[in-house]
Each structure stands twice: as C-alpha cells, then as structure tokens.
Amino acid sequence: MKLFDVYPLFDIAIDHGKGCHVTDTEGVEYLDLYGGHAVISIGHSHPRYLEALNRQAAKLVFYSNSVINPLQQQLADLLGEASGYPDYQLFLVNSGAEANENALKLASFVTGRRRVIAFSKAFHGRTSLAVEATDNPKIQAPVNRNDVVTVLPWNDTEALARELEKEDVAAVIIEPIQGVGGIQVASDEFLKTIRELTSAHGTLMITDEIQCGYGRSGRFFAHQYSGVRPDIITMAKGIANGFPMGGLLIAPDIKPVYGMLGTTFGGNHLACAAAIAVLEVMKDENLLANVTETGNYLMEQLKGLPGVREVRGRGLMIGIEMEEPMKQLRSDLIHKEHIFTGASGTNVIRLLPPLCLTRDEADRFISSFRKLLGVG
Q: Is pLDDT of 88 > 70?
C-alpha cells in the first residue's frame, strides 16, 4: 500500500530526540528550531514527561468520557493556575483544527448566528468550518465553501466595525500572532478593539492560540500582552509535547448544554498525563522566563543582518523575512549546518523551537545563519 502523498518531504528520517536536538536514522544530529510545527514545548524526550506517559500507560491508556476521569480535573486546575484563567471552563479535544471547529460551533450555539469573521493570511485548520476560516482557497474543497466566513484585512478596525454593525456575526476568530501567515503580530490596540466591538454587538471573540499559545510568546497566551479576555481560547500544539491533544478555554458565562459538544478521544487518560507533565515542567523549569530572555536575544542578534528585511514575533515565535526567496538558505541550514527551521511563503523563515532553547543553542544558530549570509 502506498502512502497518500500529502507533503513534499525532506529526505531525512528522524529516529530520536533529546531536548532541542533530533538525530536521523543515519546518525546525523540536528538542532531543532522548529519543534515539529511548534509542538515540542518542553523538549524532546524530557525524562519527567516520559515517566508520566509510561506510568499512565501501565495503568490505563483510555476509557470513554462516560465516566469520571480525575486526570481531566487535575489538568484543569493546573491549567487554570498557569494561564491565569481559573474561572474559565475546559473542553478537551485532539487537535487544533478540532479545537477551532468546536469553538466556532459553540459561538453559533450561544449567539444563534452563523456568520464568522476571520482575517487575511489566517490559518485555523483543515476541517470544515476551520478551513473555511483559513485564508487559502487552495486547501478549501467545494464542500467547505458555504459563504459563512468573511475575511477582513489584518489590523483593520474600520472594516471590522462595519461588519459587526450588521448584528449577524457569531464570532470573530483571530491568531494573536499568525504562524502560517508569516509571524504577523496583531497589535495590542487591534485586539482591544476587537474585544470592545464584539462585546458591543453580541459577538464572541475567539483567540486561536494553537501555535502562539502555551508559553511560546513569553506569556502563557499571546493575547495576554493586550490585556483582553476572550470568550473562547483555543489551544493545541505544545499542550502535550507531541501527544495529540487540543482544548478550549470557555468563559464562565457560557453555559454548557448536554449534546452541544462531544468527543470520543478528547481528554483521554494518556493525553491528560502528558499534558499534566508539560505544565509541571514549564513551572518547575521556569520556561516562560527562558522564552522571553532567549527570544529577545535571538531577535536582537538577527536584526540588521544583510539580506534580512525584518525580524518580528514575540518570545520563541520568530519570523525572519528575507529580501530574497529563502528556499536555498533554509535548505543549506538543514543540509550544511544541520539546523531545522520552518518556512512561511517564499521569504519568511520561522523559528519555533522548544521552549527550553538555551543561549548556547541560540548562538549556534546565529553563527550558522551569519555564515550562510556571508557575514564574518
């Protein structure tokens, strides 16, 4: 049987990893500054994480959500404390697309409306309504185009105000920092305006923190730089350090009704054990402070280099926009310098390393990057 050809692949098979490093089947070690799409939060094969998974797997991997799972409440308590949202409600799912799908569905239930506002270059997932809210017609099948999503310009408050005045919008969904869109940071003023306008017009504000959340920006959630409190916050990626998991934080005034949401695998025992270990490590190793310190250092060192048009982002979510297409540069980073990075479009290199990236590891990247740019 052939695998369905989904992605263009590098001719590299990763065999194992440790911290911010991965090693392929040929024994070549790479510095991982991409974390598998920002998924690896506390580092590859963290011993506390592995111990938690092994301990739980030996007891029980899965049982359905028809019975009490104490690990879900333990995770909710830790997450409420870590995020600053102890009064919110937690619904656990399996992926980022599923989180956004449920968030948009919930907003429609609450408001009785069916229209959604998203923004240019948005990426919210590949399923049903999530992909319709994604600003990329190439990945939308005809069945996804139901004309319920309006895509507005980034940071355009006037366009947003005009649409919300129609009083038919269920939700405004925004990534506080766009990932696939090229590490575009929503201004704090824009997020505040979204909150003010949605509140005034009975619309829910959803922040998609799937890539930019869970400590990646230096705050637990990237929207927290602006001080706003969304109605729904979606998350996935780093929540369980590679174990498939996602979730929604739901404001306390949104009341649940049986049948409104549901899941088979969401919040299963093994996933919860993984997510609990992640939060414990993040706290005990003070990873958010490391994200801020190391991220600021990286960005300062990258600014002003020849060929670099702009460096943007927050924490360890960094976009390096080059003046020329970066395809060959990224290939050289992988094959010559053995450093994994991400990409966005033709000109942007994305850095999304584990949150435990050290100054020495950052320096290794800076040295290799400068070398490939021809800077002595």
A: yes
What are the DSSP calls for 103-144, one per residue? HHHHHHHHHS--EEEEETT----SSHHHHHTSS-GGG--GGG
| Residue 346 CB neighbours (<10 A) | 10
Q: Give the residue from 212, 280, 206 showing the smallest Cα distance to 240.
A: 280
Q: In the chain, what are the domains?
A: 14-42+286-373 (3.90.1150.10), 47-284 (3.40.640.10)
Token pair, residue 65, equals 């959500």
Paired tokens of 45 = 């094969």
Residue 367: which of 347, 345, 338, 343 has the closest Cα? 338
Across the range 132-153, mean pLDDT stands at 97
Task: Give the separation between CA 237 and CA 285, rounded to whole angstroms.
Answer: 19
Q: What is the rounded distance in angstroms from the CA atom of residue 126 to the CA atom of residue 98?
A: 9
Q: In this predicted structure, what is the pLDDT of residue 376?
A: 67
Per-residue model confidence as pLDDT tens digits over 277-295: 999 999 999 999 999 999 9
Between CA 262 and CA 265 the distance in angstroms is: 10
Does residue 44 contact residue 21 with C-beta atoms inside 8 Å? yes
Mind giving me the DSSP string for 227-268? Answer: T---SEEEE-GGGGTTS--EEEEE-TTS---TTSS--SSTT-
CB-facing half-sphere around the CA of 115: CA atoms within 13 A = 13
CA-to-CA dists, residue 72 to 224, 268, 272, 275, angstroms:
24, 8, 6, 10
Per residue in 149-169, pLDDT tens? 999 999 999 999 999 999 999
- pLDDT, one tens digit per residue, over 210-257 is 999 999 999 999 999 999 999 999 999 999 999 999 999 999 999 999
- Residue 87 φ then ψ, to 5°: -90, -5
| 167 token code pair | 């009083």
CB within 8 A of 8, min separation 6: which ones?
A: none
Is the pTM for the entire model greater than 0.90?
yes
Neighbour-count burial of 155, counting CB atoms closer than 10 A to its CB (0-12 exposed, 13-18 middle, 19+ buried):
middle
Rounded to 5°, the CA angle 171-173-174 comes to 155
